[in-house]
Specification:
Elements: H1 3-13, H2 32-38, H3 40-44, H4 62-74, E1 78-82, H5 85-97, E2 103-107, H6 112-121, E3 124-128, E4 132-133, E5 138-139, H7 144-153, E6 157-163, H8 174-183, E7 187-191, E8 215-219, H9 220-223, E9 231-235, H10 243-253, H11 260-274, H12 276-294, E10 300-302, E11 311-316, H13 321-332, E12 338-339, E13 344-347, H14 354-370, H15 394-399, E14 403-406, E15 419-421, E16 426-429, E17 447-450
Parallel strand pairs: 2-3, 2-6, 6-7, 7-8
Antiparallel strand pairs: 1-9, 4-5, 8-9, 10-11, 11-13, 12-13, 14-17, 15-16
């Protein structure tokens, strides 16, 4: 039975007194300001594992049925609803396959949650950097060649973790990477958080688990219309990983009080994406984005290579994109996902309509007509070129005593905290890494923890 329907039927009847958590008692009392924001229906659907409802930690009935349905839609061995975002899926994937002192090959442009997984598992990272696109200021996709030498020279690597598509929508060659991983008996984990629509539209890349990855994690809230932090974790049918092992890992990190409204939203979102209406919706979104790209003035260039079209990466001829983004925000009330000196990123999704794209296009055209020489850019920041030396692996670094010093005194010291810009959440320095004098200009704070 559908969890969404069961919840709806239950709160309509309202014939059971709940002396359970949560203490708002299905909305009998709601803080007025909270009700104004969330509405009364939310609280009617918000309860714990009451009689007749299933348990996310050990699904046996309704939730199990929903998970089986999701798995069939995604063609996975098993799928899991994540009520703590893709972060929890990445942590669970790593906890399932990695143990203390296992060596894991990790792309340096990974999300910070991968570092957290290294701390929890005690695994030792072998970092590598994908090729960097200097013109656009982004990392390119990972290729078989990027990792083949590492796997040939490091026979003890147990797993590989990569991000595809990246924050900017760049795909990696998962099919070829999965083949080399299988040859070396290496487990492939793909952070596919930004690829939640791949199963339902015509994209340049197929979903990771359908290309040979063992595990993939997708954020339904990023592009697919679900609320924060709805996500999914999938096991490939070709993987030897047991669903029970993944469930045990999720149980280590998940709350014991999962949100039933959030689980219902995950179910409803997946069903919509899988429907004829949802598939047409995604096709229309891509059509509207393509029309937007074609209508851009000649001074604005969209990322020209095969990528996820829902990530609109724009480069403005002779302009500092940070300054253009500031004008968009202040004058036109339009906020981009992030900007650098090189480019601006606009993330679209199910909620992006033709009118939104039209407003953005009009604003950009007006800005480009009136831009002054003051906007022209300086040299791009090349943070990706900075090399890091590892003194302590993540778990050991996490447990070391720390002290706070001024950043201008930190060169040569061992970093004691994560230094990163968010978005996109890619670390500049991690605990246990040596701080060089080249790092100092990019640390945007006055003091830093060192070991």
């Amino acid at each position: 039975m559908s969890l969404t329907k069961k919840i709806k039927d239950y709160y309509k009847k309202q014939n059971t007194l709940l002396f359970t958590t949560p203490s708002h008692a299905q909305g009998r009392f709601v803080v007025p300001q909270a009700e104004k924001i969330l509405g009364s229906t939310y609280f009617k659907a918000d309860f714990s594992e009451i009689e007749g409802f299933d348990n996310l930690r050990a699904p046996q009935s309704t939730i199990k049925s929903v998970l089986n349905r999701i798995s069939s839609i995604y063609d996975s061995k098993a799928s899991f609803m994540l009520i703590n975002g893709s972060t929890s899926g990445i942590l669970a994937a790593m906890l399932t396959v990695l143990q203390d002192n296992d060596r894991v090959l990790v792309a340096r442009n990974c999300h910070i949650s991968v570092y957290n997984g290294l701390v929890l598992t005690g695994a030792i990272p072998v970092w590598f950097s994908p090729e960097y696109d200097n013109e656009w200021g982004i990392y390119k996709g990972v290729t078989r060649q990027d990792i083949e030498d590492y796997l040939n020279k490091n026979k003890d690597i147990k797993a590989l973790i990569i991000t595809s598509p990246t924050y900017e929508g760049i795909f990696s060659d998962i099919y070829e990477i999965s083949k080399i991983c299988k040859e070396h008996d290496v487990i492939l984990i793909v952070d596919e958080a930004h690829g939640a629509l791949l199963n339902f539209g015509k994209f340049k890349s197929k979903p990771a688990i359908l290309q040979g990855a063992d595990l993939s994690i997708q954020s339904l809230h990023k592009t697919a219309g679900a609320v924060n932090p709805a996500a999914l974790l999938h096991i490939s049918k070709s993987s030897s990983i047991l669903p029970e092992s993944v469930q045990n890992s999720l149980n280590l990190i998940n709350t014991t009080s999962p949100s039933y409204p959030l689980m219902a939203d995950i179910e409803a979102t997946v069903e919509y994406l899988h429907s004829d209406k949802g598939i047409k919706h995604i096709a229309k979104l891509i059509e509207d984005i393509n029309a937007f790209i074609k209508a851009l003035p000649k001074e604005i260039k969209a990322y020209p290579y095969d990528s996820d079209p829902t990530k609109i990466l724009l480069k403005l001829d002779g302009c500092n994109a940070n300054d253009i983004a500031d004008i968009l925000n202040r004058k036109y009330r339009i906020e981009e996902e992030y900007s650098t000196q090189n480019a601006m990123l606009f993330i679209t999704g199910i909620g992006t309509d033709k009118n939104m794209l039209k407003q953005l296009l009009c604003a950009l055209k007006k800005i480009m007509k009136t831009k002054s020489d003051r906007i022209f850019c300086s040299d791009d920041i090349k943070i990706h070129n900075l090399k890091t030396d590892i003194k302590y692996p993540p778990r050991i670094a996490r447990s070391k005593p720390k002290k706070l010093i001024k950043v201008n005194q930190a060169a040569g010291q061992i970093c004691g905290e994560c230094i990163m810009k968010y978005p996109p959440g890619i670390p500049l320095l991690l605990p246990g890494e040596v701080i060089s004098k080249e790092h100092i200009p990019y640390i945007e704070k006055e003091a830093i923890l060192i070991i």
